[in-house]
Amino acid sequence: MELYEGLDDVGAHGESVSAPPWILGHRGAPKQAPENTLASLRRALDIGLDGFEYDLRACATGEAVLIHDVTLNRTTDGNGPVRALSLPELFGIDAGSWFGRSFTGEPLPVFDEVLEFGGTELDRSPMHMIELKEAGLVGAVASRLRELAPGLSVRVASFQREVVLEVRDAGLPSMLLALRATEDDRRFVRDERLDAHGVGPGGWQTEAGRDDWSFCERWAWAVDDPQELLQACREPLFGFNTNEPYRAMATRALVALAPEDDEPYPVSAPELFVEPEALQADVRLRGEWYGSWSTSCEIRNPFPFPVEVRCGLFVPNGAFEIDGLPCAFQLQVGERRSLAFRITGGSRSPGGDPLLAALYSWRVSTGKEVLVPGGKLLLDAPLRRRRVVSADPIARRLTMLTERPGDPPASLTLQRQRGELLLSIENPGGLQEPHIIAHLDGQLVRGGRGLRLTLSEQFDLRGGGVPFSCGIEGLWRGEPRLRRWAGGLPEGLSHGAPGLLLSLRQG
């Protein structure tokens, strides 16, 4: 990653800090290698993570293979349900070329390979968080663990209660997964004597999450947001998995270096709101995920000693002109600085938002008033590009992005009906067999030409709105295609931040 070039292990990863929390790679290191492959798991360990999380499904002959989706379509060159193919048929599947040319030929791993990989190829034994995506796998997983890796540190997890109970009864460390902490799940985990409970990003910030959970390990999955990482490390959680390994390890180091600091994440990046409808015609020809923003960020010193800071923007995708950064300055203990800058540009599609990065460095005294190099820590935060819409009783048109030259207009309508959100296809943009896909507050849902989504009871009280996106899936000249309103779709990573859905009180 360009952001970390030129830094040694301390600079990239922060100080050498032990758990808790344990930090695992979500499906390996899915921003640097194809998810749920041996290459991705190996990369997670090369970065310095404590282990990795991966997903298991059964193929037609019953063996467990590493894959997240029900079908092969998204992450391999195959098609159709995983359960439709036998293990010999899966041996010819390419699980890497979709991610990048250098990964062409990367195979779809079998569970046995991961256990042997963790036990024989490495100097240390990584922690495994194993998510069972379906029922019927527990017996085989328990048997292979006992035979191939009896001393391995594992957590076997599922969203399905009956699967987690089977895991417990098989004598394996059990973890119930959920979107957020609830009182019903708290009682279930306690009464059934489960070992752990894992929730999604921000999922512990509920009334039930603040109750007593001392009877089990508290985990979280897919924790990437800087402030949520900071909260996870401060509490601390027992462990979490992440798609942002460098940021996660740097945050854990931050908490160790500044244990008394209780303020928000030290690098405060603004959000950039995108309004494709307001773009001029010449800009729209280059794509609609563009804009020009005069904004500012804030950098503060969280450490109990003075620091030098080098601050700049890094662009993983798209083309931008940046005025006002990079810059360098010093901060005394407790000092903060606001930096004004202008950023203009974008990309055709959501994804790869610019990163605001601050490299902190400091010197220490030898006791003779002589300062020598002490350390450095790189902290970063994304400048998320978002669209915004309000949930209105009057139907609103949501125009899909034109991400390819020549894409015809496509649109949905959105309407709030009390505690529900109604989406309807208005114009499918020439797609055949169109249906709706939507992301609402961490959940991905598919429907037909219409879709009803239930709003949470706290929706009108969420001052910052809730993550939301939608789109139309269908066929274009016989090939699958997705038309999107904003980022956050489809499943997987690198598709940008979802938009925000506000109540009328907020909008």
Secondary structure: elements and pairs:
Elements: H1 9-13, E1 22-26, H2 38-47, E2 51-58, E3 64-66, H3 87-90, H4 111-120, E4 127-132, H5 138-148, E5 154-158, H6 161-169, E6 174-178, H7 183-191, E7 196-199, E8 217-220, H8 226-234, E9 239-242, H9 245-257, E10 267-268, E11 272-273, H10 281-284, E12 289-300, E13 307-314, E14 319-323, E15 327-331, E16 336-347, E17 355-365, E18 371-382, E19 385-386, E20 388-391, E21 396-399, E22 411-417, E23 420-427, E24 432-440, E25 443-446, E26 450-454, E27 466-476, E28 479-484, E29 499-503
Helix pairs in contact: 4-5, 8-9
Question: Overview of this structure, please?
Answer:
- By secondary structure, the protein is an alpha/beta fold.
- It folds into three domains: 7-12 and 22-257, TIM Barrel, CATH 3.20.20; 267-385, Immunoglobulin-like; 388-503, Immunoglobulin-like, CATH 2.60.40.10.
- 17% of the residues lie in helices and 35% in strands.
- It is built from ten helices and 29 strands.
- The strands form six sheets. The chain has an eight-stranded parallel beta barrel with strand order 1-2-4-5-6-7-8-9, surrounded by four helices.
- Helix 4 (111-120) runs parallel beside helix 5 (138-148) and helix 8 crosses helix 9 (245-257).
- The longest helix has 13 residues, at 245-257.
- The chain is globular and about 60 Å long.
- The model is unreliable at 4-15 (pLDDT under 50).
